[in-house]
Amino acid sequence: MTETTDYRPMWSELGLDLDKHDALLAALGQAYGDVFLSQENRPETMGYFDFVMGEIHGLRVKELVDARAAGRIVVGSFCVFVPEELVLAVGGVCVGLCAGADFGTEAAERYLPRNTCALIKSFFGFTLEKVCPYISACDLVVGENTCDGKKKAYETFADLVGREFMVLDMPNTKSGEGRAILKRAYLDFAARLENLSGVTITAENLTAAIELVNAKRRAMHRLARLRQADPTPISGLDALLANQVFFYDDPERFTQSVNNLCDELEKRVAQKVGVAPAGTVRIVISGCPMAVPNWKLPAIVESTGAVIVGEESCIGERGTQNLVDGSGDTVGELMESLVDRYFAVDCAVFTPNPTRAPHTLQIAKDCRAHGVIHFALQFCAPYQMEAPLLEREVEKGGVPVLRLDTDYSTEDVEQLRTRVEAFVEQLRGESEPIAHRS
Ligand code: BJ8
After folding, report:
1. Mutate to test the pocket of ligand 1, among 112, 122, 147 (most ligand atoms within 8 A of CB)
2. pLDDT tens profile 152-180
3. Is any ligand 1 atom within 6 A of the Cβ of residue 98?
4. If you placed Cys at 151, which of 50, 145, 225, 403 could pair as Cys (CB 3.0 to 4.6 Å)?
5. Dist. CA 289 → ligand 1 center (Å)
6. Apex CA 123: angle with CA 7 and CA 413, to 5°?
7. Residue 293 CA to chain centroid, in angstroms?
8. Cis bond before residue 358 (omega within 30° of 0)
9. Which of 425, 363, 418, 424 is nearest to 393 (CA)?
10. Which of 124, 345, 375, 383 to mutate for ligand 1's pocket (most ligand atoms within 8 Å of CB)?
């Protein structure tokens, strides 16, 4: 929060519990300072992302409130299968609602079994404790029938969220029938958005929306490519932050800011300036999404002296890979392209999910990684169960894998550190990263 702006009246109007919200912001500020601001040799243009994080419950929320006052709808979602393009086409604003904090767990466990993943508990906790201004600022909250945990949790959440709520029916196979289910879901979603906003989706507004989101993704692809340099010009933590802000910020401003960051990183690469010396152990993280403020594992990894150079994650390359073909002339053609792009997302809720392991290996090769750390949230059946399959395939390709299951608490930090240190040590002892081997 800037010193001159008092957002408390706004938070109060949004129905937040100010005392609990103060406690959350204090913890968030402390963690951010410890994890991000303590890093050395950060790119100067990360200042923008520091500002965004400082204002994440302030200025950005005010923008959403102002957008609503100006007649735009605000739509919140929990998953990269919810297409931002459709929200933008009707002139709306789309925000990510996933929560990455160990907050309100006790309240959440009044409704959820203890053995529910931390991500689901977290968005229940944020809602029940009234500390999420994003949910409060939404006209519509959208869930999706992905994993069993989410799909059953949404049945309860629908009554708790206090906003209009809908669930997209999702396929779980990569088949023709699966694609048809996704298309049906997107048509239903488009109809709901048109109804809510009073704006009809046309080829013109959908083309413009596709271009806006493609531009965001292109900027993220550029960032991903720059991280392939050795020495890498940006820490994994800072790159993760950009991936996290992807879901909150105004799209145009975000794209510009990532491109500014990339301009600076290009210079660093040309001058061989890195956040760690050339030859540092390089890690790719694969697995569950890391929502703000889940920085635990990356902070541990980079504290060992290794550097994270890529993320096979929905808050990372799984979420940003592939563009939508915006060349169609009709809404029908553009919708088909939209479905094609999203249907390729290789989330572990699909069974089988044959492209995720090769994709992870490809990221590791492109990033010249020495190893992959697979991150699964405890009680996340899709990612935990897919982990051994992914490990086998990636190791067959010559890249060692460490599998870790954790949650949002800090209880296992030292245990995780010990395992990560041993893995990084093992990788240090090995030869070149995979892409350097013949
Ligand atoms: S497309 S990864 S954002 S569903 S961690 S709630 S899977 S039990 S978040 Fe996800 Fe969409 Fe897939 Fe991506 Fe369930 Fe696992 Fe919890 Fe998860």
Report:
1. 147
2. 999 999 999 999 999 999 999 999 999 99
3. no
4. 145
5. 7
6. 100
7. 11
8. no
9. 363
10. 383
The pLDDT value given to residue 2? 47
Query: Residue of the nearest CA to atom 1 in ligand 1?
Result: 347
CA distance 133 to 70: 18
Predicted confidence (pLDDT) at residue 124 exceeds the cutoff of 60: yes
Nearest ligand 1 atom to alpha carbon 118: 16
Give distance in angstroms: CA of 414 to centre of ligand 1: 26
- Chain-wide mean pLDDT for the chain? 96
CA 247 – ligand 1 centroid, Å: 15
pLDDT, average across residues 16-39: 95
For the sheet containing 164-168, what is the strand order?
A: 93-96, 74-77, 140-144, 164-168
Dist. CA 147 → ligand 1 center (Å):
6
Average pLDDT over residues 77-97: 97
Pocket test for ligand 1, best of 377, 404, 407, 408 (most atoms within 8 A of CB): 377
- Nearest CA among 417, 413, 382 for reference residue 402: 417
pTM to 2 decimal places: 0.95
101-115 mean pLDDT: 96
Q: Does residue 269's CB lie within 6 angstroms of at least one atom of ligand 1? A: no
- Please give the Cα distance from 186 to 134 (Å, whole number): 23
**349-379 per-position pLDDT tens digit:** 999 999 999 999 999 999 999 999 999 999 9
Q: How far is CA 271 from CA 214, 230, 274, 279, in A?
A: 30, 11, 9, 16
Q: How many CB atoms lie within 10 A of CB 254?
A: 22
Q: Which residue type, as a one-letter code, is found at position 121?
A: K
Separation of alpha carbons 215 and 209, rounded Å? 10
